[in-house]
Amino acid sequence: MKQLTRAEKHLYRKFDKIREREESGANAKRKKSSRAVAKFFSNRLAIVGLVIFSVIFLACVFAPLITKYQAETVDLRNILKAPSGIHWFGTDKVGRDVFSRVLYGGRYSILIASLGALGGAVIGVLLGSYAGYKGGWFDKVFMRIGEALTSFPTMILNLLFVTIMGRSMRNLIIIFTITGWVGIFRLARATMLSIREEEYVQALHAFGLNDAIICFKHMLPNALAPIIVNITINMASMILEEAALSFLGLGVPMQIPTWGNILNASQDMYTLEKAWWMWAPVGTTITLFVMSINFIGDGIRDMTDTSVQG
Amino acid sequence: MGKYVLKRFLTFIPMTLLMSFLIYGGLELVPGDILNTMFPPDILAQMSPAELDVIRASYGLDQPFIVRYFRWLFRVFQGDWGKSMASGVPVKDVIAQRLPITLELALTGLVISAILGSVLGILAALHKGEVIDMILTAIGVVGQAIPQFFFGMVAILIFALKLKWLPIGGRTTPQMTHWYEHLRYLILPAMVLGLTQTSSVMRYARSSMLESMNRDFVKTARSKGIPEWKVNLVHGFRVTMTPVIILIAFRLPALISTSMVIENVFSWPGIGMTFKDAVTAQNYPMVMMIALIIVVMVMLMSLLMDIFTRIIDPRVRLQ
User: Fold this and answer.
1) Treating both helix axes as pointing N-terminal to C-terminal, what angle do A280-304 and B148-155 enclose, rounded to 10 degrees?
2) Pairs of CB atoms within 8 A across A/B
């Protein structure tokens, strides 16, 4: 018998396993959804992303259980203390515990980004489905508006809206909603356009089903995966945008400790050189969090990719 | 070709007008009376409603919105861009002075990211699945997630404060005698800007190169016995570069806006810092014109790129 290479042996083992499963009837029992989950977990980076995301997210949500300090408590006897067992990330210029500020700040930053991304998704899906399904002037008008919005560089657009609406957390969420719907609008619209003429849709029409049900229940699920991936991309970029806006002093008002505002407070050269713990942990947390969201997005993309094996 | 240029240009004009309308109309929505920002409150309190109406009429503020918009547009075309509400200096002069300073930073950053991004991307594509590809991909992943200003702060800490190789910020010193002394100020912000942009160029170049390496004409070239490096460079690279050049060119106007954050980290006195200050001070004429200029640049760039791709890529012309 011919000598098998390692890769071939590996392949044969895999085939054997699959045959075993088939013969024992285990495959038939496996649900369809678990296939998608298996695909997600076959992407190692997606698992890493999910772990990092969960750790940061849960730590922020359960911040009061993890740290005994409040984000706002000023302690003038302990200012600019280096990291230690008492203050894990040290303290800032007025003695506030940096670790608890990172956790409580994460609550606001994550809230702003996720509400902005979800708001954009809801508007994008509603408008996009309708525009793709119906077409006509409605479609044309919103395509133009979308095109106009995407012609603006993101930061310029954000700052224009900040000028118009003023600085507040609520306004920032609205701004992210307004700037974030275009991508999802195009996705939903394109899906609707491509399957509008499918036979199953026409059959539903013939049954006399109402347009909204056909549109959202029967057609939209085809676009669900790319929409979710787009939401993750939006959320990641909104975390970065919030941080950048607040860093410039034009995002969330200073008294709310978002990640961007914590970095904003450490711009001076003294802090930069002598008190690295005031800004390095926040910056690293933002980087890790955004990275983990991107990994999860890639994992979700794999879930629906037919070329990926679960 | 001429017909195409004309057609493309005819869509450019209404789009630009739409953008100017959106910017003007958007700032019209700002709550509050514009006179409050033009006069100190004590002077305003002394004036009678009739006097205020006269002032309004003298600025044309009594006219309906659409009339004011077209008047404003007309003035912009005539070259009257209004005055900065903070300093009284004409907006045009401020932009003419600050835009080149930003372009200097943005173009240097663009060149760095273009060269580094395409070289590393092609390198990763040629070594697909090997260690070097994995390391570059990992760096790219981190590069996409790191906030630019955080990267800038780390760079200042290492190269300016600890190693003391480069200045921490600013653009010039009063006693500067040679132009090249100025380069020392450019290096750090341009590197930070360039490197943060490199990761996406790299990703793009890598996938573009991988795609073109599987094309029939590359296989043909290889089967003709052309040396491997020549196949990669001459045949693969050329096709790879089309989308990469488009990406890079599109980047330039966007880079001006991304450089806004970098400019603030390094106190680089460009248009980004001016824009941020204008937004902070609610200096509307300035905000309006800078936004308009940048948007027009974006649209002009996409116009030029569409024409350019038709010239260099014969496949687009056939469609």
Assistant:
1) 140
2) 123
Q: Does residue B82 fall inside a structural domain?
A: no
Query: Looking at A128-142, B133-147, B297-311, which range is the least confident one?
Result: B297-311
Mean pLDDT of chain A: 84
C-beta separation of A96 from A72 below 8 A: yes
Residue B165's CATH number: 1.10.3720.10
* Chain A residues near residue B207 by CB distance under 8 angstroms: none
Q: Taking a C-beta distance cutoff of 8 angstroms, is the pair B268, B172 a contact?
A: no
Instruction: Tell me: do B204 and B102 sit in the same domain.
Output: yes
Q: Which domain holds residue B108?
A: 91-312
B64's CB contacts (< 8 A; 6+ apart) are none
Residues 228-287 on B with a CB inside 8 Å of A are: 253-254, 256-258, 260-261, 264-265, 275-276, 279-280, 282, 284, 287
User: Which of the two residues, A28 and A239, has the higher pLDDT score?
Assistant: A239
pLDDT at B173 over 90: no
Residues from chain B contacting residue A161 (CB–CB below 8 Å): 26
What count of residues does chain B have? Answer: 319
Q: What is the ipTM of this complex?
A: 0.82
CA-nearest residue of chain B to A262? B150
Give yes or no for A27 touching B (CB within 8 A). Answer: no
Residues B100 and B226 in one domain: yes
